[in-house]
Amino acid sequence: MGPVVESVSSSPTHTFSKDVLPGIRLLTGLGVEGDAHMGTTVKHRSRVAVDPTRPNLRQVHLIHAELLDELAGAGFAVAPGQLGENVTTRGLDLLALSTGTVLRIGGGTRVEITGLRNPCLQIDGFAGGLLKQLVHRDGNGTIVRRAGVMGVVVEGGTVTPGMPVEVSAPEGAHVPLVPV
């Protein structure tokens, strides 16, 4: 079996965690209907403070469920939606995708991956020591961010748990994800 949606979440307010729902609706060019981060321009409060006119490259936040499994093995009980993601997937290494990869969810809805989520100190407010699990340096000293990926909605539709996820890599060389 291929990659699937394991859970979906949304919150109308700027809370750290989002409520798990039976389904969410993605709106083309906007994001998750009713979510605090929906819109064509940035909605993340720290980014709005810098420049509220910048395009919103963070309309949809995705995390792979395998990360939550790994965190559980390290002693952190983190359920879907608790790290603020909208879509939790299983069977897909989101962090290895190329910038510009398009995920087709359920056959119609499409999300283009724009980059990595840059985890912040609020994560340690959720669970002390969790930030070190999500951001660290590798053997070469390079910062490794593991808090999921961000994307924009290129074709809207409803997303529910159990839907298949198809991956379409962009043409050309792999472009590693960077924080957006």
TrEMBL record:
<dbReference type="InterPro" id="IPR052716">
    <property type="entry name" value="MOSC_domain"/>
</dbReference>
<protein>
    <submittedName>
        <fullName>MOSC domain-containing protein</fullName>
    </submittedName>
</protein>
<dbReference type="Pfam" id="PF03473">
    <property type="entry name" value="MOSC"/>
</dbReference>
<dbReference type="InterPro" id="IPR011037">
    <property type="entry name" value="Pyrv_Knase-like_insert_dom_sf"/>
</dbReference>
<feature type="domain" description="MOSC">
    <location>
        <begin position="19"/>
        <end position="168"/>
    </location>
</feature>
<dbReference type="InterPro" id="IPR005302">
    <property type="entry name" value="MoCF_Sase_C"/>
</dbReference>
